[in-house]
Amino acid sequence: MLLLDQVRQQYPAYNDWSDADLLGGLRAKFYADLSDEEFNSQVDARERELRDEADGGAGGEFVAGVYGMGANLARAGQATAQAVGADRVAGYLAETAEGAQRAAQEADPVSSPLLDSKTVGDVATGVREVLTKNAPQLIATLGAGFAGALAAGPLGGLVAGFAVNYPLMFGENVQEQIHQKGKIESPGKAAAWAVPGAALDAAINLLIPGGGKAAGGMVTRFLKGGARGTLIEAPTEFTQQVLTIYQAGGDPTDPKNRQRLLEAAIAGALLGGVAGGGLSFLKKGSGHENDQGLIDPATISRAERDNALVDLANDPDTEGLLAANGIDVEAIRKGDVSALQSDAATKFLARITERRNQERAKSAVAPTPPATDGSIKAQDAELERQRALQAEIDAGRADPGAAPAPLERAPLPDTFVTEAPHVQARRDLDQRLSDLDAREAEGPLSMADRRSRAILREERSRMGPVPPVSDPKPPCRGRGPAHPHDTG
């Protein structure tokens, strides 16, 4: 307690007294006329005042978290130096770790454990402290995870998270040994037990968005992401503390350690919930896509379906489409539940969902890129040369013996003989535009469809017209050797 710390600073003789003994002595000497309830109330009020005065706020807690990471790194270095016999380096790093710990204490001199909270304000302060103090390590872990995921996919994110957290976990184990035994008892044990601890810390990177899609609206995404993060981080932090205490020779079942484990689980739940909820907004899609990018009707709630119908009914561009499908637009506008849940409305939404999935499946097949392969371009050039040469022979301006020999050119690939890739891409775009036009004939297009059509038209205009299908075989009507593709 800060109140008792002040008393001990003024009267060092009481340094050996426990908090309970010192508090009892103060009451017996100065507050004997107060009831237990009155005395405890005054003590709590004074303690809260002192805490408010000493509270470093979110900024101080964040800085304390940064210094805490520095202290753990220094402890890891100290244990490594001690293991290899570099005593001077170990001593320097020990001083560095102690300095970082003092700086952390100065930045945030007051600790507000959640389990000691007595008011709503205490709970809010405790939650803030958990989040801001752990934010530096969480940012480092997720930052490395994003970089690793970009470079090598989800596995790369996990490996990068492990690499960041291993030295921190190593240092935390060393610090626990010093706390339990007064010295670094076993650097090897601290290093070995840091492996599972760091692996557990890296598990938060499983929340980094990948190819999957988030399901639901904004609130639903946050809640589902937060729940997933809580399920990952709460047991992770609990298990980490068990490993840290055990490797230092402590007993995780000790009453003091049980409270510490409970606080770790609560902290993990808070961190995972916030991180998971926040990261869920980075996922792409409307919120109802599966891993293949197709809409999963099972993820759409009844409320979301009803809201979609109300929006369509109130949109002048789409109300006619609803009416054409047997849906009572006026009843929907008035909030008639039976109209929203009618068979016509259900079938209409099912058809819309199926059509959207068909379009997405079609667009998911990437069009073949324009012909840039050197061999195909060479084939084009060779064909043009042969046609020009044959024309010269036919006109009597060239020696028939100069006609192309069968072995001068390689066989054309099937993709070239049938249709060039860039021509196929143009035909695909034309088909997609034709589909949209056909749908518009059935009823007004949605704003998203109209926007898609405008983009497709702009892209199509840059590609030029589709050339007529022509026989790729060069004519061979001269007196020279017959071309291998010629059947005449």
Sheet having the most strands: none
Q: What class do helices, strands and sheet pairing give?
A: mainly alpha
Count, helices: 18
Number of strands: 0
Give the terminus-to-terminus CA distance: 104 Å
| Radius of gyration from the alpha-carbon trace, in angstroms | 37 Å
Q: State the shape.
A: flat
Order of helical and strand elements = HHHHHHHHHHHHHHHHHH
Percent helix range: 55-70%
For the residues shown, what is the average pLDDT?
Answer: 75
Low-confidence stretches: 210-216, 366-373, 405-421, 469-488
- Beta content comes to under 5%
How would you describe the overall organization of this protein?
With 488 residues, the chain is an all-alpha fold. Among the domains are: 55-280, no CATH class; 301-344, no CATH class. Helices cover 69% and strands 0% of the residues. The protein is flat and about 120 Å long. Mean pLDDT is 75; it is low at 210-216, 366-373, 405-421 and 469-488.
Précis, in short:
This protein has 488 residues and is mainly α. The chain has helices spanning 2-10, 19-30, 36-54, 57-83, 87-107, 120-181, 187-202, 218-247, 255-280, 302-313, 319-324, 329-333, 337-340, 343-364, 374-394, 414-418, 421-442, 447-463.
